[in-house]
Design goal:
With 460 residues, the protein is an alpha/beta fold. The protein is built from 15 helices and twelve strands. The strands form four sheets. A five-stranded parallel β-sheet has the order 7-10-11-6-12, with helices on both faces. A hairpin with a 4-residue loop joins strand 8 (218-220) and strand 9. The longest helix has 20 residues, at 2-21.
Length: 460
Amino acid sequence: MSTISVRCQRVSCQLLASSSTSPLIQTRSYATQPKKGQIVKQASQGFKGKKNAPSGQMEPAKKDKKMMLDFSPLGLPTTPRFATSHPLFESDRPDTLTLQSFHPEMLTRVVESQALKFPHNDNDPFRIFGLPRNILVEFRLLSKPCSVIRSVTIDAINKLDAASEKNSSESRVVFTGPKGCGKSFLLLQALQYCNARDWLVLYIPRASNLVNSTTAHTYDMRTRTYLQPIFAYQTLQRFLKVNAPRLEQLRTQTEIEIERRPSVPPGTPLVELINIGLKDQGHAPTVLDAVLEEIGKQAIFPVLLAVDDFQALYCKSHYRDQHFSAIKSYHLSMPRLLLEYASGRKSFARGAVFGALSMSNTTFPLPVELREALSLEYDRPYGPYVKREPELVEYAQGLERLAVPSSLSVAEAASVFEVWMKDRAVPSKPNDELFLAKYSEASGNARAFVWKGLLSSMST
């Protein structure tokens, strides 16, 4: 008994001594630094915690395995192999359309009213430059991007063939017509034709983005214009990617001065000049202007400048200066550059400038200066006292009008109908009654025939 009492006294003394040395020090589990690959597991509180889990104990990290529950409809097995092979889960829609490819040699009067598919290449212009919104949606619905060759398509191609040997100031064409008649598709066909014929192509699918104040702009004292470096940088990047094989064969013919860097001597590869603008976004507007001037002097490759939403270049911009006053479109670097080529002030030795009006764009409607230059009917009363800006009148002089028919012919509409039905993008059964009903409802208008006619059953 004496030995037990002595041991109890020793233990109690040790406990008192340890408590007296650090009576106010508390250690918490989250204050300890865990080792790599370990997590700190604190003592849980409440009825869910483990009884024997000491505070501050570190355990190696474990992957949290979630229980995957399989749902089997109709009591069928849910293995991936079965899901892809069973006919219940197979789609009867074909992957591609069985159409002939779009080749320049085929584009004659013989293929009028036939649908041709665009070739699938990584450097296709419409894949790099982009597309107008309505065409982009249609191409996403179809399994293959395609278009119907119309009579006006052959007319536009004949103009391009003639322009390949003339100065671009003699070939400045604007596609006109009511909304939905197919002006943007016609411009895309001209773009694909020139790219396949080894032209240098520059495509602006949405010119309204150049004036709607969506990117930054800075004032340049040298040119007295507002530079748009982001747009210029993107244009250079896309222009190089689409036309790289042809640009590698061209060199500069004159010395080019660029601020805050040495001048570019004559004989420099044109690709190196473009890379200067791609390395420094601040130099992009100057480099883009110089590149277009250099390709305008050479006569090896024809050049096509294609602009959709063409009327937006002549409208009031949404940009504001430091005094919150509206900036004119021709005071912005990108619209001004395009307007100079559209007006003939600047030109390409061989090539053409094509534009397409967008009559459905209510934010940037067709201005009176461009309407009178193209001899279009007024949509509202315009008297002699309505103000015309002399700068816009000068930029619109000499433009040629190419009218796109307001309605599809029966043969052209039948080809459009056949494309959508063969691709099984429309759930309705194809028959003559359905075709004639939708064609009559749309009055032959191309966009209304597709969206308000064939695809009307898909709208909610």
